[in-house]
Amino acid sequence: MTEAFEEHRPVLFGVAYRMLGRVADAEDVVQDAWLRWAGADRTGVREPRPYLVRVTTRLAIDRLRQVQARRESYVGPWLPEPLATDAAGTAPDTADRAVFAESVTLAMLVVMESLSPLERAVFVLREAFGYPYTEIAGALERSEAAVRQLAGRARRHVQEGTPRFEVDPDRQRDLTERFLAAAAGDDLEGLLSLLAADARLVGDSGGKAKAPLRVIESADKVARFFCAIARNPETAAEYTFLELNGGIAMLTHRGGVPDSVLQLGIRDGRVQMVYVVRNPEKLASLAAR
């Protein structure tokens, strides 16, 4: 019983995280799925994975409806909790790695926030995990026609709203290092040379750390924001590069505790989007990184 569940735990977590955008919430859902599995009559379960995915999806839908109400009172912009994606074994055997990784990017998850819980479930199961419509219909107790309609609506919305960023890790790291060097050096012209004219900065603190409470728009305003930080540095920090949500990011530690995550969205060789996560609750899972 335990071995069967543990074999599929990475996939179950992947479904729950894409549904909820929070590591802690996803882990809670997977734990609830384990309790359901342990207490269920499994004599009629020939294939554990579809059964467990069905249970996890339904639990995630219920949890999403609860957390969406809380997010309405969230202080400042909301970003998904950064997730380390450099570990092996998180993608299904039949999934294309690039498609699978794209489904977990910060840009994608932000857009998915505007989907209904059912639309999000269908999109995750279909686009990220490649489940056939018949299985999704069974998992959600909906007709196949209804599921296809939900999938089409969700796909159109995501395609229209998700910006397309470059994903080459070497180029992403190089531009990130140049961006950080210019920011640390209070180099306004250097930053402007790297930023797209319509660049945006989205900071997530949840009101629990210093970060912009509104989205900062335009290259000039984003550059001046980082120059202001350089003139008023906080305590000494340590920096680590790692893969988060399918892309290169910088993790900052202060006093041995995760302080912030910075990730750039790059298009046509310029920084189009700057994501900064400073909410300490969303950085706890990165403490050992």
Task: Itemize the secondary structure elements and their pairings.
Layout: H1 2-20, H2 23-39, H3 48-71, H4 97-102, H5 106-112, H6 117-128, H7 133-140, H8 144-161, H9 169-184, H10 188-194, E1 195-204, E2 216-217, H11 219-231, E3 238-244, E4 247-254, E5 257-267, E6 270-277
Parallel strand pairs: 1-6
Antiparallel strand pairs: 1-2, 3-4, 4-5, 5-6
Helix pairs in contact: 1-2, 1-3, 2-3, 3-7, 6-8, 7-8, 9-10, 10-11
Overview of this structure, please?
- The protein has 289 residues and is an alpha+beta fold.
- It has 11 helices and 6 strands.
- Helix 6 (117-128) packs across helix 8 (144-161).
- The longest helix has 24 residues, at 48-71.
- The radius of gyration is 20 Å and the shape is elongated.
- The chain starts with a helix and ends in a 12-residue tail after the last strand.
- Mean pLDDT is 90; it is low at 88-95.
Characterize this entry briefly:
With 289 residues, the protein is α+β, with helices and mostly antiparallel strands. Helices cover 51% and strands 16% of the residues. The relative contact order is 0.13.
Helix content: 40-55%
Q: Please trace the helix and strand order, writing H or E for each element.
A: HHHHHHHHHHEEHEEEE
General form: elongated
Mean pLDDT score: 90
Helices, by number, come to 11
Strand order of the largest sheet: 2-1-6-5-4-3
Radius of gyration, whole Å: 20 Å
Strand-pairing-aware structural class: alpha+beta
Unreliable residue runs = 88-95
Distance between the termini: 31 Å
DSSP strand count: 6
Largest β sheet strand count, sense and barrel closure: 6 strands, mixed
Beta-strand percent range: 15-25%
